[in-house]
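Q: Start with the shorter request: fold the first protein.
A: Done. Sequence, then structure:
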Amino acid sequence: MKAIDITKSSPTLSEILRIASEDNVILKTAEGRQYVLAEIDDFAEEVNAVRQNKAIMQMLKERSREPATLTLRQVREQLQVKKGKQPKGQNARKG
């Protein structure tokens, strides 16, 4: 399996497909996302190979432990709390 970090180079789709015709490809983005490009006929074999790859399985295990992502609203609310403000809809009682 060949990894291509597309933040460092910008291969054309034709170049990526040429590489993928020889070996499966992992595309890594600047955001940290990873995509697998595999020929369909080889996909079942690749799944089995990945399952046998201890390094990949360890990485997936670690990633599964990462906390869930937050919505933009949740982040804004957390930032408001840190600034000492109450999030919208949670006004203190008067009186």
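Q: Next, the second protein, separately.
A: Sequence, then structure:
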Amino acid sequence: MDVTSGLMTNITSGALGTTVNNDQQIYNQIKNSNNTKDQLKKTSEEFESIFITQMLTTMDKTVDKTGSLFSDKEGGYLDTFKSYMYQEMGRNLASNPRTSFGFAKQIYTQMEKFVK
């Protein structure tokens, strides 16, 4: 799933519940995995994606939007869409070996010896 299709799926559903369900589906996939090392790998990737999402959200808060095209005068709808976008961007960046920050690999390497 690319960023656009994931983002559009969440936007067209029109509800925060879909995002929660999407997150729950990811966690269920991790939980239902037969191999504990596979669970560790997926969990470490999800941790990295959450970290990247939080970083992007925090970075966005530092941008001065006064008088710009993205100044949100009409309510909070723009911030809502940004949260979906940052979440998908975080997942895609963490899951791609070329764009990953490397946190997932480090976590997996360090925790691998504790998993059967």
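Q: Describe the second briefly.
A: Residues 1-16 have pLDDT under 50 and may be disordered. The first helix runs from residue 3 to 13.
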